UniProtKB/TrEMBL annotation:
PANTHER family: TRANSCRIPTIONAL REGULATORY PROTEIN (PTHR32071), TRANSCRIPTIONAL REGULATORY PROTEIN FLGR (PTHR32071:SF21). The keyword Cell inner membrane does not apply. Keywords: ATP-binding, DNA-binding, Nucleotide-binding, Transcription, Transcription regulation. This is Sigma 54-interacting transcriptional regulator. SMART domains: AAA (SM00382), PBPb (SM00062). The keyword Metal-binding does not apply. Residues 25-254 form the Sigma-54 factor interaction domain. InterPro entries: AAA+_ATPase (IPR003593), AAA_lid_NorR (IPR058031), Homeodomain-like_sf (IPR009057), P-loop_NTPase (IPR027417), Sigma_54_int (IPR002078), Sigma_54_int_dom_ATP-bd_1 (IPR025662), Sigma_54_int_dom_ATP-bd_2 (IPR025943), Sigma_54_int_dom_CS (IPR025944). Pfam families: AAA_lid_14, NMT1, Sigma54_activat.
Length: 614
């Protein structure tokens, strides 16, 4: 098989590919051929493959090549762009959901893992997955089963996972943005794709392929490149890789006459000057530094935000309003591009009202404000409209704030600490008083466990990043146990509930209102609550850039929170000391990779902060 599949031109057999790039593989460069030979050895097995390379280098092509060379070739090939999934619906899209499991879930829906059963699931831009989805993905890969949101019964799946990224996942792991255990699970076999400028031998075969493809589509019988055009193609650096090459050939063909594509038809000279050799970029770099120095000598209020906004608007203009082009230039996901466009009023080309995206859970003060629409009315007076985003846990809120798809929200005491350790731009706005009686470790009423010491060797369910993390640490220390003495099962609340009901775990660390609901549903016993161990505070948090730019909106938000809750206050010294103790404990136990100073993440209203609508 290897000798046949590694030939220079390989036509994929599937006909459901989304683009011309995914239907044909035309590699002749010696390094590309070596990669194909390596893929031939990898393809027949079921091991996960991580494909890396710049945007447009053909990562999906490689994934389909591996799929078609495997025993799963007759099964489905499902390609999912993780960067294009809404953060709030990410888990539903990947793992599925049951009817009524969340607002808007009007029917049951299988996730992409179920759709890919018996075949291959290609996770493109896997580095864009939020930490909450990473945890569940890791469990699916380990257990080879999925549990839909709102379901209690796991569904076995038989799927090979091929993932791809244009990001440095090792750096993301070091910064705490990507789980190390998931990285090693995905990176069993590595397929690095060089940029097109480093595999020059592929340029002309690809160009001829696209020329023939579009000539047939345009109804042109015969067309070819001139010698000058071919030399020009080989000399161009192709910063956009295969995608740029395809677009250039298609455009040139539309301009060509007499069956010949010339150097002038390609119109690459300006691109070569802008993106060519390193020495051509140095003056631009020097000019940028000079401009920044001039700004720093006469600093203006909110200078960093203005520079950041200018960079974004310029990239958007250079990309001629193309979302994907803007994302490629800045090295960010399209979700972040869309969020910034909405924030700056650029989406659709017309100014829009400020949209404030608020994360809430289906209980507490924010849920009440959503139901009464009091906050919507209060923020409307500031020229803003509210987009309510329901989240399963506080970590979902933190993840969304971190990637720029949410502005304000509420979470417990642990998620902001994890966010700060990962250098996420999340700030504390206000807190609620402690409620230690609202979290507990529970067991079934007839459990043989009588005290915390009996947890040794037992399975304890707990949600990632929830308040109960600190409480469990303190509870185990009180019982003379260490973290490693207990089989900690990190599960989302819905999965943890199912595991507890099925007695797959011996105990569950839980918080209100889930605690009260569970006690009503079944006979349980509290092994220990958090009184005397952990404060169990709720924090109102925000995205730093949003809070700095829209201080009056934040004030109106906190005003409504205080009116309904009656107890939300700005962060005081006692609260900061409590949070610092949690942060220090997490660092001591290596839950976070670096120490943090909580005070650095407390938001303070700047006198120069811009208001919404101005």
């Amino acid at each position: 098989m290897g000798a046949t599949r590694s030939k220079a031109v390989f036509q994929l057999s599937r006909v459901d590919s989304p683009s011309t790039r995914a239907r044909a593989l035309v590699f002749e460069d010696v390094r590309s051929v070596e990669l194909l030979k390596r893929l031939d050895r990898i393809a027949p097995s079921d091991i996960p493959v991580l494909v890396t390379g710049e945007t447009g280098t053909g990562k999906e092509i490689v994934a389909r090549y591996v799929h078609d060379g495997s025993g799963r070739a007759r099964g489905p090939f499902v390609a999912v762009n993780c960067g294009a999934l809404s953060p709030t619906l990410m888990e539903s899209e990947l793992f599925g959901h049951e009817k009524g499991s969340f607002t808007g879930a009007l029917s049951s829906k299988p996730g992409w893992f179920e759709v890919a059963h018996g075949g291959t699931l290609f996770l493109d831009e896997v580095g864009d997955l939020p930490l909450s989805a990473q945890v569940k993905l890791l469990r699916v890969l380990q257990e080879r089963e999925v549990v839909r949101i709102g379901a209690r019964r796991p569904i076995p799946i038989d799927v090979r996972v091929i993932s791809a990224t244009n990001a440095e996942l090792e750096t993301a792991v070091a910064q705490g943005r990507f789980r190390e255990d998931l990285y090693y699970r995905l990176n069993v076999a590595h397929a690095p794709l060089l940029p097109l400028r480093e595999r020059i031998g592929d340029i002309l075969p690809l160009a001829r392929h696209f020329l023939g493809l579009y000539a047939k589509r345009f109804g042109i019988d015969h067309v070819e490149f001139t010698k000058e055009a071919m030399a020009h193609l080989r000399a161009h650096p192709w910063p956009g890789n295969i995608r740029e090459l395809e677009n250039a050939v298609q455009r040139a063909l539309a301009m060509a006459t007499d069956g010949r594509v010339t150097e002038e038809d390609l119109r690459l000279r300006a691109h070569a000057e802008n993106h060519g050799k390193g020495e051509a970029r140095e003056p631009a770099q020097s000019g940028l530094e000079a401009a920044l120095v001039a700004l720093f000598e006469h600093p203006e209020p909110d200078l960093y935000r203005k520079i950041e906004d200018t960079v974004f608007r310029t990239a958007y203009a250079v990309s001629e309003g193309n979302h994907l082009g803007t994302a490629r230039l800045l090295g960010i996901s399209r979700n972040v591009v869309r969020a910034r466009l909405m924030q700056q009023g650029l989406l659709g080309g017309a100014p829009r009202r400020l949209r404030v995206r608020i994360g809430f859970q289906d209980f507490g003060v924010l849920a009440s404000l959503k139901n009464t629409r009091a906050l919507d009315e209060a923020l409307a007076a500031h020229g803003a409209e509210v987009e309510w985003i329901e989240c399963a846990t506080g970590m979902h809120v933190v993840d969304a704030l971190s990637n720029g798809t949410m502005d304000l929200g509420v979470a417990g005491e642990a998620p902001p600490v994890f966010a700060q350790a990962a250098r996420a731009p999340v700030v504390y706005l206000a807190s609620e008083p402690p409620a230690p009686e609202g979290e507990a470790i529970v067991v079934h009423e007839r459990s043989a466990m009588g005290n915390l010491a009996d947890l040794r060797g037992k399975a304890l369910a707990m949600s990632r990043g929830a308040n109960v993390v600190y409480f469990v640490v303190r509870a185990l220390e009180e019982a003379g146990l260490s973290w490693s003495d207990v089989d900690i099962r990190t599960l989302p609340p819905g999965d943890a509930y199912g595991a507890f009901v099925r007695r797959e775990v011996d105990a569950w660390a839980i918080w209100n209102p889930l605690l009260t609901s569970l006690q009503r549903e079944m006979p349980t016993r509290v092994l220990r609550d958090a009184r005397g161990l952990a404060p169990n505070r709720a924090f109102y948090i925000g995205r730093r850039a949003f809070a700095d730019a829209h201080a009056d909106v934040v004030d109106a938000f906190l005003g409504q929170v205080g009116t309904v809750g009656g107890s939300a206050v700005r962060i005081d010294d006692e609260t900061m000391e409590s949070q610092q103790s949690i942060a220090d404990t997490f660092h001591r136990l290596k839950f976070i990779a670096r120490p943090v100073h909580v005070g650095d993440a407390v938001w303070r209203r700047a006198a120069s902060a811009h208001s919404a609508g101005r």
